[in-house]
Prior knowledge:
Layout: E1 3-9, E2 20-23, E3 37-42, E4 47-58, E5 71-72, H1 81-94, H2 98-105, E6 112-117, E7 120-125, E8 131-137, H3 149-158, E9 163-164, H4 165-170, H5 175-183, E10 187-193, H6 213-226, E11 232-238, H7 244-257, E12 261-265, H8 272-283, E13 287-290, H9 296-307, E14 313-316, E15 328-334, H10 351-362, E16 365-370, H11 375-382, E17 387-391, E18 402-407, H12 408-413, H13 422-434, E19 437-442, E20 450-453, E21 470-472, E22 477-479, E23 486-487, E24 501-504, H14 508-518, E25 524-527, H15 537-546, E26 552-555, E27 568-574, H16 577-580, H17 587-599, E28 610-615, H18 621-627, H19 631-645, E29 652-660, H20 663-682, E30 689-702, E31 705-714, H21 718-733, E32 741-745
Parallel strand pairs: 11-16, 11-17, 12-14, 12-15, 13-14, 15-16, 18-28, 19-26, 19-27, 25-26, 27-28
Antiparallel strand pairs: 1-2, 1-4, 3-4, 3-5, 6-7, 8-9, 8-10, 20-24, 21-22, 22-23, 29-31, 29-32, 30-31
Helix pairs in contact: 1-2, 1-10, 6-7, 17-18, 20-21
Amino acid sequence: MPCIAKVAVNDATIHFDKxxxxxxxxxxxESLWPGSIVLVxxxxxxxxxMAVVLEVGAEEAPDPRLKSLLAAAPEKARLTPDLLELVHFxxxxxxxxxxxxxxxVIPYGAQYQPGMENGKPVLKSRLTRTLETVYALVGELPxxxxxxxxxxxxxxxxxAGPCTKSALEAQGISSSTxxxxxxxxxxxxxxxxxxxxxxxxxxxxxxxxxLSPEQQTAYDQLEQxxxxxxxxxxxxxxxxxxxxxxxxxxxxxxxxxxxRRALVLVPEISLTPQMTRRLKSMFGSRLAVxxxxxxxxxxxxxxxxxxxxxxxxxxxxRSAIFSPLQNIGLIILxxxxxxxxxxxxxxxxxxxxxxxxxxxxxxxxxxxxxxxxRTETYHAAISSRMRLxxxxxxxxxxxxxxxxxxxxxxxxxxxxxxxxxxxxxxELAANLQRGEQSILLLNRRGYQTVGxxxxxxxxxxxxxxxxxxxxxxxxxxxxCHYCGHRVSPxxxxxxxxxxxxxxxxxxxxxxxxxxxELLPGTRILRMDQDSTMxxxxxxxxxxxxxxxxxxxxxxxxxxxxGLDFGNVTLxxxxxxxxxxxxxxxRSYENVxxxxxxxxxxxxRAELPGRALIQTAVPDHPVLQLAAAQDYPAFYxxxxxxxxxxxxxxxxxxxxVSFSGAxxxxxxxxxxxxAAILGQQFATHPGQPLRVLGPTPMNIAMISGKYRYKLxxxxxxxxxFRTLMHAALDAYAxxxxxxxxxxxxxxxxxxx
Length: 751
């Protein structure tokens, strides 16, 4: 009976993303399963296209017009049943295409692409396999003829187990010696995927964990959930410096002792080195990493290590939630409040939601951790939908840093036009004299933000995007942070009236220059997107700061959380007001979190810490609550606002965005989709929905495309998603996607 495969093809739009049927050639029938990656002839021209098999079955009388599969990837490349279940989850929950979900789950290096060999279409791996020769001992040296010293050395080296060619050569054993022993049948060789120990420099040095009474109480509660064998969720809410990581490590230790595995997510690449160091030193080499700072080969080798069952712990950023780890007993989301856990490109998933799905699949404990949890997470915890575990004191009884505000209105009135206040400079200088370190947080990279004509007021903007160009001094150019447009040399005269361009605003580069001028000889380490582009830049920079090779760490939000330096006693916050008055319903939550987190970087060892916050509104209640690290009081204030305004957790939030080359067509398409939604939901009066808009997006144009949005306040359940699919089908039936592309985002805060 003929075998039929139903596949989803690559590069389909969401409107044409359906399953297509193909005949399975007899050669493939034994090795084809749901999750297999295949090559199919597609369209009128039968162009080879990548696809994923979602269903396989036999049919007595298949359609005679069906085409046959062209090729299939090796069986080990197919999606395992659990990863395939995540693909289905992403497709259903986030309105992406099947293959967008596949590419989210599989790293680039493990993916395949169409190719040609001997005139036939084939599947080719995107990366050439990195192999190495491994030698194993299979026989003994004969007494005669008498073996040489190197031969004896090689055999003795291999008695403990197989060894790579490079490791043997490092001991002075040559290829000719090894080849001679192979010819005599004493050794055998095989080609294996090259192993990669990214943490060879970190010694295995497990130290017994000593928990404080408060930490032990927290651990005891979480251990109950860990050992229950059921899906459980918990929030570990502790003030900065309370020792949440020690509780993690104890839980991971218990998880491994139970024969299960652990998955640890961190929000920033900059936090990975410190967490990796602690995990490697305590648990050894069965540790794998997944994040975007690895090159494609490194990431693939780490992924294969996980796939082969050679890793007990995986640590990484958002995408690590898709690691092919089996038998997961514990999933940790550290600093769970961070926006970097939300993907901003298709599929626009939330690592929180995917982690919940994986915890349900594996019957594991899902642990959220933060000093400033998301309002939705804390609401779920105090509503008994997950366990709430609290740490209210810093480890070792150390006090929280003292916090003071610097009123920038008074600075300006006193004639100080600089971005760094006189008080901040004095405190930094005092720290320098004591040999102590400081961290300065500034929420902008670059040098000077805006170029404006002093005569007519014209602002230099990107021609492709509705945003000002940013001056980057190191490149001597104006750059667009959205499409990469570059203007060099930097204009001095206005293109509109010929007047003089005045550059104002500030960024990390400019503040670095100011500090160098105000504090000559100070060793300043700047960390932002510009300075951390090179490979392993985060780890190298933070290691040098830890060794006290720098006096001041100046950076954007990547320096605000999770870092632990014992000699840091002063933390300064600059430019917070732009966030405080930003758009989006999470703006207060973001400010509270950022200040609490960065203030918590100080005073983490024996030396007491202090923090200074520069602001024009020092009496603002959010700033005052953040300074006091009073999260419960902030939560009460924030949850009242959310309930009154109908924001999450009291509804789901969906932003439907539209983009296209003609502004009026984009606006009309958005308005028509709103009307279609109204028609669909009129037939289901029990489904709650509020539609706001259409309105221009916060950045109205990017890369030459106009952008509008509808904001939906809804209940994101199966009924809502069914109706949205119907609305998208109606939108496509009216040929509107040709005028305006459409995308849905359930993680936006509406800015």
